[in-house]
Amino acid sequence: MTASETRPLTAAAPSRARKFPSGFMWGTATAAYQVEGAACVDGRTPSIWDTFAHTPGKVFEGHTGDVAVDHYRRYREDVRLMSELGLDSYRFSVSWSRVQPTGRGPAAQKGLDFYRRLVDELLTAGIEPALTLYHWDLPQELEDAGGWPERATAERFAEYAALLAGALGDRVERWTTLNEPWCSAFLGYGSGVHAPGRTDPVAALRAAHHLNLGHGLAVQALRAALPSGGRLAVSLNLHEVRPLTASDADREAARRIDAVGNRIWLGPMLEGGYPEDLFADTARLTDWSFVQDGDEAAIGQRLDWLGVNYYTPTVVSEVAAGEAKPQEDGHGDSAYSPWPGADDVAFHRAPGERTAMGWPVDPSGLYDLLTRVSARYPDLPLVVSENGAAYEDVVGPDGSVEDPERIAYVHAHLKAVHRAIADGADVRGYFLWSLLDNFEWAYGYAKRFGAVHVDYETLERTPKASARWYAGVARTGELPSAGREKPARRPREIR
Ligand code: FCB
Prior knowledge:
This protein is an alpha/beta fold. The chain has a single domain, classed as Glycosidases (TIM Barrel, Alpha-Beta Barrel). The chain has helices at residues 3-6, 32-35, 48-53, 71-84, 96-99, 109-124, 140-144, 151-168, 181-191, 201-225, 248-270, 276-281, 295-299, 364-376, 404-422, 465-476; strands at residues 18-19, 25-29, 89-93, 128-134, 174-179, 231-236, 241-243, 306-309, 314-318, 345-348, 382-387, 427-433, 452-454, 461-463, 478-479. It starts with a helix and ends in a 16-residue tail after the last strand. Beta-D-fucopyranose binds at residues 31, 34, 179-180, 183, 237, 309, 386, 433, 440-441, 449.
């Protein structure tokens, strides 16, 4: 008989509060095109996302980031909100075409001044800036010159990194090169559901390589220019790939998706080169001759931490020729696949609870991902650089938003992070996506991920219940056992 079996039924339940290690960093994240607005102000030129959003049929109901949530003008209020929530860090991205309008050459002073003001405001509030150089908004001029499928874009990216390091390096220590290059390459140039909307698998693979190269060259440029050398990282949406069944065929499908989803980045960035099986899987499409001698060494720069973005696992199976192929990979509808070399792979969504994006809620995927990645790269601290959920928020008559599903989602995922740390994963921080409701790419403003509600008419900000809940976690460094694991009933819609 075990101790728990002998415990009297009336005994108080042991405290289930989970304490995070001291110094664990609590933050929120946004991205320039999703929040800034001010698209044509102070010399900013269009990025591929401006062009894409202004192309009819590309974004839900023709929404654009022209105004977004006007963070460009309201950043002081937004920093105050973060400060009131007691957050340690703010992960934001820089709009390349705001600080270097042609994607090359001299900087736009007013654009740089905005980021200086933002960073100063953060530092004054005691919030650490975590700057992402590239969150998908390539200057349109560079796309017109060929975009990421062309090598020159990687070189331009390194120059842009050096320019920003010169301008902000005295006040920003924590830098991320790219956010989710998988999306840039494969949704942008493969399935076409993201800007620039191209649907060419070879261009997508070329883009992947030049994003990798841009990352490596940018890390070199940052190391050279930053006074302290910086604390440098990349943020990857690593896919937690699960075979639908234990069959050899489904395991083979998982291997392929792991290659083109994960190891295409981790290989050259952290393991010295591209995996051979990726070359074999894509041999029908390209011989990869765009990878030049020395490129893999240039990509494999030492990093100080790795950003892991996680929302839901990826469940795959192999389909036999002629069989109907489920394609529910959660990355939007397109006749074109974002998975080059994996035509015989089908994607499935797990049964059960889903967010408003239709993404299954499965925190075990985050646990598995963090423990696996940390075991493979034990010297590389991890930070969850994005995690969060969209739900159909309802504004109450008094303007408040009760969002128990979001609290439950974040609670369950933080529990997974805590368990991963307890089991040895070196995880140093967590950034909730997102601080504010914002422009959710091809879904426009239809999907709300914010801890803070934004009224899109007035741009008024109102912290949701989840913001207050998250502030409590950040303040105490402790995950309360009281966080509701199951969504409470939502309030009736007010008409
Ligand atoms: C990630 C993106 C981020 C946001 C979330 C929901 O893939 O990096 O900008 O759209 O998804």
